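Extended Data, panel c. Modelled sequence:
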Amino acid sequence: MSKNAEQAAALLRTRGAVEPVDFAVLLGFGLGGFSEMLSGGVSVDYAELPGFVAVDEPGVTGRASIGAFEGANVFMLQGQPHFFGAGDPTCMMTPLLTAKALGAKYLLIFATAGSCKADLYPGNLMLVTDHIALFGLNPLIGLTGHDTIFSLHDAYDPRLQRRIKRAAAGAGVPLQEGVFLWATGPTFPTPSEARAARQMGADAIGFGVAPEIILARAIGLRAAGVVAASHIFSGLQASEPPSLAENQKHALAALVPMRRLLRAFMKTADTF
């Protein structure tokens, strides 16, 4: 456990955080506001927590919150720095280690992504079943103190995925499944890159998810991810070029079904 994570966990305890944490939930671009779902919680800006990278990206607020939600104690990480902003693919390591220090065993990632699948429309949700991360730095390169050579065959935990699918069905939330491709950003992929991603088997492309999944598995957290389509890449269908404004609009549209899914997930009996 890193010194920064231990200090961050200690600071959260002094602010009133209750342990142990059952789940860590990471929220990506445009998906803030989830902390209002927590009761009896505490919120601290990333800038106050040792080792947390302050978020300096449009539409993103960096804040850690801990509170009760549907019978579970949840550590909610609202907003995440990305490789393209922090210059470091390990920038979410301390927050994830802090979650583990507070008792979390599971990580749920909710993010936005561009669609390169014909029937994955803006606002639709997709359960990530696997990822392609061939074009950026693996976050474990140069990392010491952790096992870094291991299989990612089950990077997206099958039991968590089954629970998410049962929750979606029970809550009436449409949920597709597909493969996520990690692009480093900050520019959106070109039309040719989007077409190449589709030919490689990707259904959605985004700037996060994969590095955090790899880091989570390296430190022993079981993880799963759900993305909301924020746009369809130009070059695949007749559409306007992607923009931050469009992403924000469709992220807001996905907030309601994502909240319903998370609420149903916490109510759904696990199979662990």
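The chain has one domain: 3-266. This feature is highlighted in the accompanying rendering.
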